[in-house]
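dumping this here so i dont lose it
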């Protein structure tokens, strides 16, 4: 039994370190027999194995894969493309054998048991054959690397090269050969490309959301995340401060950049924090019932139009992200229209917009909680996907009204000092908006000790999502850069749930919205930039990213007086 688990846990996708010696026929037959023993839908055994040894064929396939890799690299944000450069994705020419595993969707006839209505069961079955092959190969000391870098044109050419019948589909292209050693963790993890998700995140009891390993008390995502937020590491902060004083520069000469370095050190719990790259901005989008009160001159459908623009890459957030090498992810938590699926759009809709908070609660408690939990999951996914810095973004016509109300609820400030001109409103609209905020507060009397209740009464779905996003980042000890007043309102909710949250937040800029200043004071965050921006989308957070990256890079790269043999100044 133990041997089986050893094989299972030490199986790796291998792309390097192959020996050129051929694979013994008997060994290969055993491995293929293991593959052929896989379970299959209706016992249809839809797989075939094409063994490719011819160097000329492998050379051609390598070229196809390389072309696709180039196209993939060109589609990546700069920080990802840079990381990809040092990653091998195939060993087509270095392995003596390539195995192409196919699936025949027609095998077994039209009445194949279990495939009726679920055609994908065919290729799933072939994938299980691949897994059996992979494990058996590991037990034989053979490395296997799966190559999926084929576009439609590449697959068509592969079909031709190997004389595959047109009705058969390619499930896997595998590079197989002897290796001296297997890496002890996934190579992509070693490169920082992605991390393993804890099993606890993936096991739900009885229904989605109540997570826990067998035997453990199941916990809800919100509570377990709040529990996981602890204080930043004071010892690391102290050591970083001390190192900054020993670096070859006058003490304190980097001004507030030194504070940023110390903050990052405290978050990462190490004096030399990792450079916060790659970074991803999550733009939470939602609509607002309070729009009906005439708080903005912009029609509500601008939300969905701008979501389309961001997903299509045409907004300011995209331009800034492109320039800074960051990824943009749009999260539909509450847009009032149904959105078509698109790459870069996460469908997490809780409701088609909130209700009008001047007439009743904006959300139910359940909706508010669900949106917060979506935010936590987005943070988890982005961190597990290798991001070392998260940035907040938002899109939602009328969302500064909900933000102002949240800020008042958590800080006790008067609506007149918090409510701002948002996208640029005239005096009459500002007076109406301020009155709307005041009426909502009077109606609901939200209790800051009940943050989910506050969100439900006067919040927006994007504020709730952002609250979860900030909590999720803090729980994973990942720096989160706040954009403007919308993110700030979300961070106030997060801080009310878990008081250590502000230690993980960096304020990208001070928004021109009056509530922005108050939020940052309340959170104890000093804005890094002050550029009179009031766009949202994540733009102000993105522009501050190079400050964080420069601060961390300096901690790693700059010599100390002792190491460089530079004389420090004398006291006085
Ligand atoms: C369906 C599938 C496709 C994959 N495609 C590629 C690929 O094109 N190139 C590559 O280097 N690795 C590929 N891999 C390997 C994964 O990157 C690898 O399984 C993952 O990083 C975990 O590492 P491990 O297999 O060593 O545990 C693929 C794996 C699967 C299951």
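and the seq i came up w/
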């Amino acid at each position: 039994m133990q041997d089986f688990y050893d094989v299972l846990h030490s199986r790796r996708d291998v792309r390097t370190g192959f020996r050129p010696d051929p694979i013994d026929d008997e060994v290969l037959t055993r491995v293929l027999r293991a593959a052929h023993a896989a379970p299959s839908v209706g016992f249809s055994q839809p797989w075939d194995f094409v063994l490719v040894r011819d160097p000329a064929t492998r050379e051609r396939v390598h070229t196809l894969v390389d072309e696709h890799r180039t196209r993939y690299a060109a589609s990546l944000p700069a920080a990802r493309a840079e990381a990809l450069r040092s990653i091998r994705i195939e060993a087509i020419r270095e392995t003596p054998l390539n195995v192409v595993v196919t699936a025949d969707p027609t095998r077994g006839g039209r009445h194949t048991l279990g495939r009726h209505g679920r055609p994908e069961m065919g290729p799933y079955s072939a994938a299980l054959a691949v897994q059996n092959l992979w494990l058996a190969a590991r037990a034989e000391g053979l490395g296997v690397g799966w190559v999926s870098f084929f576009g439609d044109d590449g697959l068509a050419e592969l079909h031709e090269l190997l004389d595959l019948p047109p009705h058969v589909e390619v499930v896997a292209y595998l590079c197989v050969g002897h290796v001296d050693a297997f890496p002890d963790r996934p190579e992509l993890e070693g490169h920082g490309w992605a991390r393993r998700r804890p099993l606890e995140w993936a096991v739900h009891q009885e229904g989605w959301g109540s997570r826990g390993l067998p035997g453990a008390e199941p916990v809800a995502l919100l509570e377990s995340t709040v529990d996981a937020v602890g204080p930043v590491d004071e010892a690391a902060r102290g050591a970083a401060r001390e190192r900054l004083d020993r670096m070859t520069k006058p003490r304190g000469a980097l001004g507030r950049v030194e504070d940023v370095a110390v903050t990052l050190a405290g978050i990462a719990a190490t004096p030399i924090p990792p450079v916060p790259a790659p970074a991803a901005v999550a733009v939470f989008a939602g609509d607002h019932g309070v729009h009906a009160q005439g708080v903005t001159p912009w029609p509500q459908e601008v939300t969905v139009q701008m979501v389309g623009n961001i997903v299509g890459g045409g907004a300011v957030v995209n331009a800034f992200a492109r320039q800074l090498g960051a990824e943009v992810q749009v999260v539909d938590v509450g847009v009032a229209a149904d959105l078509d699926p698109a790459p870069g759009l996460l469908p997490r809709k809780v409701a088609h917009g909130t209700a009008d908070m001047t007439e009743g609660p904006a959300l139910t408690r359940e909706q508010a909680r669900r949106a917060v939990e979506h935010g936590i999951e987005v943070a988890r996914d982005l961190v597990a996907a290798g991001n070392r810095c998260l940035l907040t973004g938002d899109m939602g016509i009328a969302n500064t009204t909900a933000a102002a109300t949240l800020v008042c609820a958590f800080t006790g400030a008067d609506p007149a000092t918090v409510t701002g001109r948002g996208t640029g409103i005239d005096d009459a609209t500002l007076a109406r908006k301020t009155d709307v905020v005041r009426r909502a507060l009077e109606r609901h009397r939200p209790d800051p000790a009940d943050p989910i209740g506050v969100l439900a009464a006067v919040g927006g779905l994007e504020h709730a999502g952002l609250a979860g996003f900030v909590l999720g980042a803090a729980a994973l000890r990942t720096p989160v850069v706040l954009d403007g007043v919308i993110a700030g309102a979300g961070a106030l909710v997060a801080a009310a749930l878990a008081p250590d949250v502000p230690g993980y937040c960096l304020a990208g800029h001070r928004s021109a919205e009056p509530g922005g200043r108050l939020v940052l004071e309340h959170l104890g965050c000093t804005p890094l930039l002050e550029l009179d921006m009031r766009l949202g989308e994540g733009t102000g957070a993105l522009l501050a990213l190079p400050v964080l990256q420069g601060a961390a890079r300096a901690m790693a790269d700059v010599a100390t007086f002792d190491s460089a043999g530079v004389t420090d100044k004398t006291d006085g």
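The longest helix spans residues 55-74.
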